Automatic annotation (TrEMBL), chain A:
UniProt keyword annotations, A-Z: Membrane, Transmembrane, Transmembrane helix
Main subcellular location of this protein, as a coarse class: membrane
Subcellular location, record wording: Membrane
Protein origin, superkingdom: Bacteria
Keyword ATP-binding belongs to the record: no
Membrane topology: Multi-pass membrane protein
GO cellular component: membrane
Residue stretches spanning the membrane: 12-34, 41-60, 72-91, 103-125, 157-178, 214-235
Name of the featured protein: Membrane protein
TrEMBL record, chain B:
Species per Swiss-Prot/TrEMBL record: Thauera terpenica 58Eu
Protein name: Murein hydrolase transporter LrgA
Keywords: Cell membrane, Membrane, Transmembrane, Transmembrane helix
Xref: InterPro entries: LrgA/CidA
Membrane topology: Multi-pass membrane protein
Pfam family for this entry, one: LrgA
Length: 244, 120
């Protein structure tokens, strides 16, 4: 690079402008590809955008924290967006109320399935204790997963990464599971993806319909609260069972 | 639009204050959502402006997860060290959790619908 270009690069990579612009460009490029593919589940825009950004950060030798200095303006909107979930929830309130019993039972069964199956599969294949504890809350939203994993002996950073991967896996695989299990009700589709794949799953559900989004939001919120309350009780019991 | 965003931020702020004040593990925005939901139930539905702003924000919810999601790049080594059990656990458990939840919910809601159907 010429000295002038180097100077420009030094300026840009230190300013929040670059991280913010990269995020928006990656999202739009990913969404364009998603549309071009005819909305193919494997062309999930969140997954593609993250992959593109990972490559750009690696090629440009940009530190993630520096990238986040800019991208945090987008990240910040997660707060008001979470509050805004109250509006679709209100719109679906009559149906939510009518299904309250089945929803609560599905919540408890689904939440236990997520925790127990992640722990068991990890333990059978020889994951370390810290990894198993970080895996257990993988289906709930990042701040809860990190807060729950740490005091129990998990690694908050690993828990956050596993939560993100779970969200992407859920968003990509759910359409196949809908088809395979012949689930046509948007309420059922949304509830399951929100429970198992938190916010990224809820974002995917809003692409199906507002109703799927509302049920996903409800499942995400309830599973977050349930896991935060129950995991500190379940985990010691699991560890005794596994002889650890 | 500005008044709707102000309202959302005010509820988030109230949620954060409650979460910190009471030392809860539940994130502030989730409490803010519950507060706004309660307010809507008590005072009737959202106005057009709030509905439109919320709709726009939620339509692009995927975008908002990209900065945090890209954080995976920082933990490549941690995950690579135990990639087999972690990958298998994530894939297996996510498929299972989605499938089991859907099958339970489908079976239960069919039964309640059936019961309602048999009533005269």
């Amino acid at each position: 690079m010429t000295p002038q270009l180097t100077e420009l690069w030094v300026y840009l990579s230190a300013s929040p402008l670059l991280g913010l612009t990269l995020t928006l460009v990656a999202y739009q490029a990913a969404f364009w590809l998603y549309r071009r593919s005819g909305f193919h589940p494997l062309a999930n825009p969140v997954m593609l955008a993250i992959a593109m950004l990972a490559i750009v950060l690696w090629l440009g030798n940009i530190d993630y924290r520096r990238y986040f200095d800019g991208a945090q303006f987008v990240h910040f909107l997660l707060g008001p967006a979470t509050v805004a979930l109250a509006i679709p929830l209100y719109a679906e309130w009559p149906r939510l109320k009518a299904m309250a019993g089945p929803l609560l039972i599905a919540l408890v069964v689904g939440s236990l399935t997520a925790v127990l199956s992640a722990y068991t599969i990890g333990a059978l294949l020889g994951a370390s204790r810290a990894s198993l504890i970080s895996l257990a809350p993988k289906s709930v939203t990042t701040p809860i997963a990190m807060a729950v994993a740490e005091p129990l002996g998990g690694l908050p950073a690993l828990a956050a990464a596993l939560v993100m991967l779970t969200g992407v896996i859920g968003a990509v695989s759910a359409p196949y599971l809908y088809r395979w299990l012949r689930i046509n009700d948007d309420a059922v589709r949304g509830f399951a993806i929100g429970l198992a794949a938190h916010g990224i799953g809820t974002a995917r559900a809003f692409q199906i319909s507002a109703q799927a989004g509302a049920f996903a939001a409800l499942a995400m919120g309830l599973n977050g609260i349930l896991t935060a309350l129950c995991l500190p009780w379940i985990l010691p019991w699991l560890e005794r069972l596994g002889g650890r | 639009m500005i008044s709707a965003i102000t309202l959302l931020l005010a509820f988030q702020l109230a949620g954060e204050v409650i979460a910190r004040g009471l030392g809860l593990q539940i994130p502030g925005p989730v409490i803010g959502m519950a507060l706004l939901f309660g307010t809507l139930l008590l005072r009737g539905g959202p106005g057009d402006e709030l509905r439109q702003t919320a709709g726009t924000l939620l339509q692009h919810l995927s975008l908002l997860f990209i900065p945090a999601g890209t954080g995976i790049v920082m933990y490549g080594e941690l995950i690579a060290a135990e990639w087999l059990p972690l990958t298998a656990a994530l894939l297996g458990s996510t498929f299972l959790a989605i499938s089991v939840t859907m099958l339970v919910l489908k079976a239960l809601s069919k039964r309640t619908k059936g019961e309602q159907g048999t009533q005269p």
